[in-house]
Amino acid sequence: MWQQVWWLLFGLETNSKLNKQPPCCRFASKAAPKTQVEFEYDGPSMKTEVPGPRSKELAKQLGEMQNVGAINFFCNYEESRGNYLVDVDGNRMLDVYTQISSIPIVHRSPLSLLSAFVNRPALGILPPENFPEKLAESLLSVSPSGMSRAQTMACGSCSNENAFKSMFIWYRNKERGHNNPSEEDIRSCMINQSPGCPNLSILSFMGGFHGRTMGCLATTHSKAIHKLDVPSFDWPIAPFPKLKYPLEEFTRENAQEEARCLEEVEDLIVQWRQKGRPVAGIIIEPIQAEGGDNHASPDFFRKLRNIAHKHGCAFHVDEVQTGCGATGKFWAHEHWGMEDPADIVSFSKKMLTGGFYHKDEFQPYRIFNTWMGDPSKNLLLAEVLNVIRRENLLEEVSRSGKALLQGLYQLQAQYPNLLSSARGVGTFCAVDIRDEATRNSILIKARDKGVLLGGCGDRSIRFRPALVFKEYHVHIFLNVFNDVLAEYN
Amino acid sequence: MWQQVWWLLFGLETNSKLNKQPPCCRFASKAAPKTQVEFEYDGPSMKTEVPGPRSKELAKQLGEMQNVGAINFFCNYEESRGNYLVDVDGNRMLDVYTQISSIPIVHRSPLSLLSAFVNRPALGILPPENFPEKLAESLLSVSPSGMSRAQTMACGSCSNENAFKSMFIWYRNKERGHNNPSEEDIRSCMINQSPGCPNLSILSFMGGFHGRTMGCLATTHSKAIHKLDVPSFDWPIAPFPKLKYPLEEFTRENAQEEARCLEEVEDLIVQWRQKGRPVAGIIIEPIQAEGGDNHASPDFFRKLRNIAHKHGCAFHVDEVQTGCGATGKFWAHEHWGMEDPADIVSFSKKMLTGGFYHKDEFQPYRIFNTWMGDPSKNLLLAEVLNVIRRENLLEEVSRSGKALLQGLYQLQAQYPNLLSSARGVGTFCAVDIRDEATRNSILIKARDKGVLLGGCGDRSIRFRPALVFKEYHVHIFLNVFNDVLAEYN
């Protein structure tokens, strides 16, 4: 099959339906001889103005879901061939720009269903016809509460970087009171200076992980190896609550710890405003994953959300690791029970594409790059979401997660010198091991017995099974884990 | 076919070859009832130590091409099913980590040839078996001179961001004289402070474009709209030569202008070192694309390369837009005729995947993220490169480019009040229009006649056809362009 696909995609066969007459010559003194028979059209052919009615209709549809300011027109990649790009209104254009120079060979897609994989359109300017429909079926069908717009990106770090930019732009527009930058703004930004490149900051939490590009990295504080030797920004870092588990047994102490952290957040916002680097946004994970599976209560997040409101900071929930069902709800922030949980929710990993949801006022008109994600990932995501619904996988996750956590509690009671602080929501579980060396050796012993686990924080093991991990698998895992732990007694 | 693919990928059919016996129960008081017949294995099965001999062999192969420090083992994704990941030595493991939590549903890939598209492995830790081979066939088969290592990334911005990090790490290791950070380095980096997060800089050029994430954006200086409202770094910005075209007619003046810019580069390196923000690397495009198709001579780049050597700065050539054949050579920097053109060459766009080549000493052990690119793009790239070779497309580009530039010279002579500074290498051509408004209206008129063009800089039109744009297409284009220009006379 593969060979056939490539043959169709790249073969230079003749196609008798396509006209091969040389174009009439209006400028050049001679038409170049056609030395090769080509699998394409014989010239441009225009039927409507551009964008035509169908493009306009699709732009209206897509405009409900994301910013369409940069879109030229929608494309029919199935009909596009060789050097000719065909739009959804049947206009056929000679392409001397090739998606901002990103197409190496040609538009050529005889196998329509595979065309999303082999064409990599510049989504921000020339999306395919089915893009609004696929976006609605995939990302928009699982929008967080209060958000009906999504911007796709190629990876998790790009998602957070671009979300930060949206927050900075939103904050500066709010400060200015309008969207029109001054001459001084425009001049100074070209040389990296304020006010055009303002001294704004993002408040993050110690132990948080938000990616490894330079903006993201300034908000990542989980391991030194991620940050070492890379220049950074002077941005505020708040303490994340260090809670005792199980949470329900330590409610009073944990509430005190959370209150201490929230107070510190407010202090930092005031301090950074005073030192001329106002906090434009706050970024936080619903469960600090890379940093050691650190939980906080719904009450903590509700209060933090209010602090963001009170100080005019955007509130960005990073669901790159927690999103897409692992906690038994589609988004981990749904456990907070809020109608207005965030201004921005970023995602990646299980979602197969990176990106972020945002409220209307975070119009990312200036959020742009060549690819803006990859439409093939939307197709896959739509199907993944169908399976999640059809198989009731969120219920499955809740059921398996309960069995997993109960099993960890039992093992913790059985091996009190080895295990502590078993915790989790859904199958998003973790347990602490007595020290880092033992944790690392347990990971290897489990692998040698056929179970793949991951570490996080200094001495935790994190469980991150797929959404089809059932009670049956939980027990296979617990059997192996018990065997491993027994070797340490 | 699509439906069949999905059926195979996501259907939960029974498979009589797979054993469904419940596992024996060593820990749990009861084995969970199996409520669903599953398309997977019945438990782990280990055959060798992990990594086994085949994994080790592949790691050795891949180690010749990129850093393998984080790789756990190589996977056989064809044999992996449901919750079980199978490695290349036949070990079958229950997966409770799922590629750093990035697999939503399952490993399941009955159609081996499509598995690269639907599985999205975490390449840095669990690459597929054919990854070394595909990397050798694709990226490594077109390595720039002096470079035999490549790191893939998801997009152009991530490529440059991670290349910057490689340069910073390299520079700090050089300063330290060894690779072992101090306690002070480790402590300070966690809170974004120096010396752990050092005050190093990247020198860039006015008019350059290197992407839009926050590190990249600090080196991008093409349009204010890209940079406005985003905090930045105080990094040095050198002037890029403003040359007169055709280059061969103004050699003396152009050489003076280039000498002025080179002198400024050296001054900035010294100044930034003096103010405590040493220049770790220099980034430059072989032709400034987004900034207006600004050329410089091979002599300029050779001298700039020497300045980087002299001052101990890394030299990073950004070929995101110029790479992959558009100039008639595979890499634009090949026109400089140097054996040692750069320390780092980044790419994206036409290459279908982002990434960067680097010299051995820029070992990116700490360059890591979940996806590290997308192996399906390597498969596509390998095929694209085969077509480029088989069809002699680089020769085709040189031939078409010559015809295109000759045509632009003729039109420029014909419309001297409208066109100026026609220039280009291969089909990577551009021409200036008398003012921005006219340029924009020409772009629209050409589109209405069925030719897609792009602008760059303030008033240039850039030509970026695909590699199969032949002389025949050049003449179609010139005819239409002539018709458009005639409307302005």
TrEMBL record, chains A, B:
One Gene Ontology BP term is:
gamma-aminobutyric acid catabolic process
Reaction(s) catalysed by this chain, per the record, are: 4-aminobutanoate + 2-oxoglutarate = succinate semialdehyde + L-glutamate; (S)-3-amino-2-methylpropanoate + 2-oxoglutarate = 2-methyl-3-oxopropanoate + L-glutamate
Which terms in the Gene Ontology molecular function aspect does this entry carry? (S)-3-amino-2-methylpropionate transaminase activity; 4-aminobutyrate:2-oxoglutarate transaminase activity; pyridoxal phosphate binding
What single Pfam family name could you report for this chain, choosing any that match? Aminotran_3
Q: What domain of life is recorded for the organism?
A: Eukaryota
Which ranges of the sequence are coiled-coil? none
Segments spanning the bilayer are none
Question: Per its UniProt entry, what is the enzyme's top EC class, as one word?
Answer: transferase
- The EC code for this enzyme is 2.6.1.19, 2.6.1.22
Name the keywords, alphabetized: Aminotransferase, Neurotransmitter degradation, Pyridoxal phosphate, Transferase
Name the cofactor(s) required for activity, per the record: pyridoxal 5'-phosphate
Record's GO cellular component terms: mitochondrion
Q: What does this protein do?
A: Catalyzes the conversion of gamma-aminobutyrate and L-beta-aminoisobutyrate to succinate semialdehyde and methylmalonate semialdehyde, respectively. Can also convert delta-aminovalerate and beta-alanine.
PANTHER family documented for this protein: 4-AMINOBUTYRATE AMINOTRANSFERASE, MITOCHONDRIAL, AMINOTRANSFERASE
Name the family. Belongs to the class-III pyridoxal-phosphate-dependent aminotransferase family.
The entry describes its oligomerization and partners as:
Homodimer; disulfide-linked.
| Protein's name in the database | 4-aminobutyrate aminotransferase, mitochondrial
Q: Which organism is it from?
A: Esox lucius
